[in-house]
């Protein structure tokens, strides 16, 4: 799988943004962490402790206070990022298909993480839950994007199962990025599990235009099939039904955003008929997903 060159160039100078819940940890990266030690960016002074490197002593402050004082510096580390792509059968529906944009967005966010010095791992779920190894450095982008590009929509593994599986394996304080449609499938228990591990959840919801407004499908008796084999339903598409559907979808998405917010997460909604460049330059920049 390849991202358009213009997208790669744009992402190469961008960084993933967190709300502060996710935190840099371990490795040598580009993000200021809570750790203090050797570095270039001065953080603070503290009293000398036995075992400290005497080269860290601040002679001027020590002389002024009459007690040994050392200088501490900000340590720049990596942010652990987990990208979870919904590859269940429902993502293969819609016009244009939701999965194609979702796959590109998952790849774009993974690429932004790698180019920003973060450590990135990807998970897909559909027929089963598949996990790739954690990768670091933009030189691993081709490998990671190739792994994501092999995913195909199918099966019915739930987002709850995938998030629970992924959150349990991701480090504490990781940024967990979910890309899917989230129609009837985002269990509070899975979010609580991520929240308990101090993980920050960013949910990118991809919906097709006919899911947002089914009016173009026409009027009259219509048979709706569940893409994941859960049965079918016959409905009469008329003004009242369409209005009820729009209200229900609006209520569901508002509840979804509120649920994520209660657990320190965020929701970004996009349409499957948007180009990946448009989503990155408009939605992601405007919503503070990247900067």
Concise account of the structure shown:
Residues 19-39 are annotated as: Disordered. The protein is α/β, with parallel strands linked by helices.
Fold topology:
Blueprint: H1 5-12, E1 31-37, E2 41-47, H2 59-65, E3 69-77, E4 80-86, H3 98-115, E5 119-125, E6 129-131, E7 135-136, H4 141-149, H5 159-169, E8 175-180, H6 188-196, E9 200-207, H7 209-212, E10 220-225, E11 232-237, H8 239-262, E12 266-271, H9 276-286
Parallel strand pairs: 4-5, 4-8, 8-9, 9-12
Antiparallel strand pairs: 1-3, 2-3, 5-6, 5-7, 10-11
Helix pairs in contact: 1-3, 3-4, 5-6
Description:
By secondary structure, the chain is an alpha/beta fold. The protein folds into two domains: 5-17 and 79-209 and 265-284, Rossmann fold; 31-77, no CATH class. 35% of the residues lie in helices and 25% in strands. It is built from nine helices and twelve strands. It has helices at residues 5-12, 59-65, 98-115, 141-149, 159-169, 188-196, 209-212, 239-262, 276-286, and strands at 31-37, 41-47, 69-77, 80-86, 119-125, 129-131, 135-136, 175-180, 200-207, 220-225, 232-237, 266-271. Strands 4, 5, 6, 7, 8, 9 and 12 form a seven-stranded mixed sheet that branches. The radius of gyration is 23 Å and the shape is elongated. Residues 19-39 are annotated as: Disordered. InterPro entries: DUF58, vWFA_dom_sf. It holds the Pfam family DUF58. Residues 44-248 form the DUF58 domain.
